[in-house]
Amino acid sequence: MPALEMHEVNKVFGTGHTMVEALDKTNFTADSGELIVVVGPSGSGKSTFLTIAGGLQTPSYGEVMINGHNITQMKEKKRSHVRLHEIGFILQASNLVPFLTVDEQMTLLDKVKTNNLSEDELQDLYQSLGIEPLRDKYPSELSGGERQRVAIAKGLYSDPSILLADEPTASLDTDRAFEVMKMLNDLTKKRNKTTIVVTHDTRLLDYCDKVYAITDGEIQLQQREHGNS
Amino acid sequence: MFLAWKEIKYNKLRYTLITGVLVLVSYLVFFLSGLANGLEQLNREAVDKWNADGIILTEESDINLPRSNMNIDDFNGKGVEAYAALGQLNAIASVGERQSNVSIFGIKEDKLIMPDVTEGESFSEKGEVIADDTLQEEGFQIGDELEISSSDTVLTIVGFTDNARFNAAPVLYTNMDTLQQVRFGEAADNNEGVVNGFVVRGDNLADVSVDDELQVVETSTFIENLPGYTAQNLTLTFMIYFLFIISAVILAIFLYVLTIQKVSMFGVMKAQGIPGKYLAKSVVAQTFQLAVAGVAIGFLLTILTGFFLPAAVPVAFDYLTMLLYGLVLIAVSVLGAFISVRTIVKIDPLKAIGG
């Protein structure tokens, strides 16, 4: 069973002559252990794709299945529950709470959800992301790269099956951007997650299993000359 | 509580300022409640000391003791458990340069309104009085011979009693004959038996039968009709209640502005699946913590201030009332937080993260 499926998903904004079709008859499948990059220019429908995949908005038509559950007809409260338990978000804007230390960011998730990573697993995650010494630091005390790595740790702490990342390398220099992508790839494989990265940065394609291109709301799987490095 | 407390700890200055406003509001509320209570006591403590259920006054007196005049034979105690005739006169007592407003009560020594003597002895001879101990604080002493305004009679203080002020004036207790002498001078004999009312104790005052010109008034009604008493209480109570509203509005505005500033952060958290209910509870918990801290500090400051106030300031703290007002302040503050709760519930995570 695929972790994420979209069947004939269509998203329309506005009506009449102001109508915009942000996503057009989108069919998409992502399996466990896959890192998929969706590329496209600004305004192509990337964010709409990601937010519909993450249950933050519902499609105008079509169905979205998360681990076999149709989230399209769910009420917001139930979709919020799915987001908390099945999906980890790494957002373009830092998803860290400014008044919580790195450790407390994880404690916050413990307050609303059980079955998060154990202390040992969290320790491993910190070490693999190289943020172990930063446990007691506040976001304002971290560099852009460190913040992004903590955001990844936060996205993974609730042990979601799907990780959705919106421009995770936007604030990073090239070396850091590659480092983050390599990390996401390693974590995807090691922890058997499904990771979908939405970006306009084509430098990142070497680290993914599949590439989809999105243009004017239409998404297409790209044929690649060589695979994951 | 987790998010609430962490944020307060991180933004110490911001939340100290908000707590500071609450401290000042609660300080003012507590102080005003003390003032209201003190002024109440100033007016009524002699009446409270009677421990009576009612008072018989003339119908035409408009429930005003000095304006009520009747004869001591007009009531014989029928239908009540106990009663005592009372004569009353407002005057100015002076010894040398020292002057004070006083209320002179003419009573019978063996009757229920006879006060306990805390210092000195009780009156036994004509011209002797027991004085309220606030006169002692003003410098009057046992043995002082008091000149009374509009009278040639001289009264001698033979003892003091406590908690005996009537309508803000210290009371001088004396016997009926002395009061008549002060009131009527040489015509005292012609006015023998004139009293202002009868203080009564009994369960069924409504059943007490009195002449048509007289009325039985419950003690609470009598107190409410003391000159200026109700107007003063209503004014202070109105100020206190208004402060409750001010406190709720101030805190609501502060929290609303802070919530608006955090819409994006809350949106991100909601996008991550953190329930809006948890975030709303966090804001309410934060308000509760700030309100409890503000009210507690305000309470302590008020008590501390009480120790340094001069005796002339009529403040008397009633801790039960203060506790009640403190709880109301906390409750209205938390109520104010619900405007922010509404905002949080309505945050669309999609808009907040710029989707």
TrEMBL record, chain A:
Annotated GO CC locations: plasma membrane
Membrane-protein topology: Peripheral membrane protein
Keywords for this protein: ATP-binding, Cell membrane, Membrane, Nucleotide-binding, Transport
Keyword Membrane among record annotations: yes
GO molecular function, one term: ATP hydrolysis activity
Pfam family, one: ABC_tran
Residues annotated as domain ABC transporter: 4-229
CDD domains hit by this protein: ABC_MJ0796_LolCDE_FtsE
Principal subcellular localisation of the protein: membrane
Role played: Part of the ABC transporter complex hrt involved in hemin import. Responsible for energy coupling to the transport system.
Family named by the database record: Belongs to the ABC transporter superfamily. HrtA family.
Quaternary context: The complex is composed of two ATP-binding proteins (HrtA), two transmembrane proteins (HrtB) and a solute-binding protein.
Name listed for the protein in its UniProt record: Putative hemin import ATP-binding protein HrtA
From TrEMBL, chain B:
Keyword Magnesium: no
Key words, A-Z: Cell membrane, Membrane, Transmembrane, Transmembrane helix, Transport
InterPro entries linked: ABC-4/HrtB_transporter, ABC3_permease_C
Membrane-topology annotation of the record: Multi-pass membrane protein
Transmembrane segments annotated in the record for this chain: 15-36, 238-260, 290-313, 319-341
Subcellular location: Cell membrane
Keyword Transmembrane tagged: yes
Main location: membrane
GO cellular component: plasma membrane
Signal peptide start-end: none
Residue intervals of the ABC3 transporter permease C-terminal domain: 238-349
Protein family according to the UniProt entry: Belongs to the ABC-4 integral membrane protein family. HrtB subfamily.
Function recorded in the entry: Part of the ABC transporter complex hrt involved in hemin import. Responsible for the translocation of the substrate across the membrane.
Subunit-structure text: The complex is composed of two ATP-binding proteins (HrtA), two transmembrane proteins (HrtB) and a solute-binding protein.
Xref: PANTHER family: ABC TRANSPORTER, MEMBRANE PROTEIN, HEMIN TRANSPORT SYSTEM PERMEASE PROTEIN HRTB-RELATED
Stated name of the protein: Putative hemin transport system permease protein HrtB
Taxonomic source organism: Lentibacillus salicampi
